[in-house]
Amino acid sequence: MLKIAYSPLYSHPLPSGHRFPMEKYELLPEQLLYEGTVSMENFFEPGLLDEKWIVNTHEPTYFNKLTSQTLSKSEIRKTGFPLSEALVQREIHIMHGSVQAALFALEFGIAMNIAGGTHHAFTDRGEGFCLLNDIAIAANYLLENRLSKKVLVVDLDVHQGNGTAEIFKNNDDVFTFSMHGASNYPMNKEKSDLDIALPDKIGDSDYLRLLVDNLYPLLDNLQPDFIVFQCGVDVLETDKLGRLGLSVLGCKERDRIVIELAKRNNIPIMCCMGGGYSPKISDIIEAHANTYRIAQEVYF
User: Fold this and answer.
1) Which residues are annotated as catalytic?
2) Domains in the chain: boundaries
3) Are 82 and 130 in contact (CB under 8 A)?
4) This prediction's pTM
5) How far apart are the first and last CA of the chain?
6) Could you tell me if 244 and 158 are in contact, meaning their C-beta atoms sit under 8 angstroms apart?
7) What are the angstrom distances between the C-alpha of 256 and each of 67, 162, 288?
8) Mean pLDDT computed over 261-270
9) How far is 239 from 280, CA to CA, in rounded Å?
10) Which residue numbers delimit the Histone deacetylase domain (predicted)?
11) pLDDT tens by residue, 129-187
């Protein structure tokens, strides 16, 4: 069964005019239920992740500042969010959602988090709409509990997974693969184990060829036993924060390549949603919904 982390807290309201589309976290499950892709039994509601698993990845001093609301104005500004206790609680629920989804992926082959993909959170700070890094926390949870020996992070958001790269820069048990816009945020990029920097306006065929040419041999060489897939849809041509040129169908084929490859190689995969900032919310929902449709089609 496809298990999906979702909480009403994911749609935590932000000030009017804020450019981060929180409403997608409510609309996406509604769309999946409406069209019959999933039923209510597919969803599980995450709780608060135990602090020990958060500070297993993040600096305790940073997490304490986050939970006590004592970040500086500069630190808050870098996150892109107005800091609040409710926002921090939301983030901790997202972390638990990805950890639990990873455990469900071990059981069912694949699992999803409606939110997550917070790849700009570093060991000691938040950036770019990310306070804590669910990708890193979930990977470290698996490794710490000896549920995995080699995790492959496949980050296909339009922005480089700079926080994830920093967290795992000295960890040979996690391989970070980021395929992202060369001239997009963050301007000062970290070094992933494999970075593919893409030119502006790259279209479906060139993008998908690069993905296949890099991902296929990567799996053969690494032999990972778990994949974390950051499948942000800000690669779309319509995205106002991205600079690439993928169509909705191209983005769907991107997800199919990754998910089918995981299935074919019997590698459990946890998918977290990442970014998506197209002006029309329907474009965002359709692109995200395709990931769930493919998961159902390929695995169930």
Assistant:
1) 120
2) 3-299
3) no
4) 0.97
5) 7
6) yes
7) 38, 25, 12
8) 98
9) 9
10) 18-288
11) 999 999 999 999 999 999 999 999 999 999 999 999 999 999 999 999 999 999 999 99
pLDDT at 22: 84
**CA Rg value for the chain:** 17
- Cis? peptide before 224, omega within 30° of 0: no
**Which residue do the tokens 């005019």 mark?**
17
Q: How many CA atoms lie within 13 A of 164 on its CB side?
A: 34
Mapped to the 3 state alphabet, what secondary structure does 75-123 carry?
HHHHHCCCCCHHHHHHHHHHHHHHHHHHHHHHHHCEEEECCCCCCCCCC
Which amino acid is it at 11?
S
CATH topology of domain 3-299: Arginase; Chain A (3.40.800)
Confidence of residue 191 (pLDDT cuts 50, 70, 90): very high
214 neighbors 196 (Cβ within 8 angstroms): yes
C-alpha 119: how far from chain center: 7
Tokens representing 178?
A: 């980021």
State which amino acid sits at residue 206: D
CA distance 255 to 18: 28
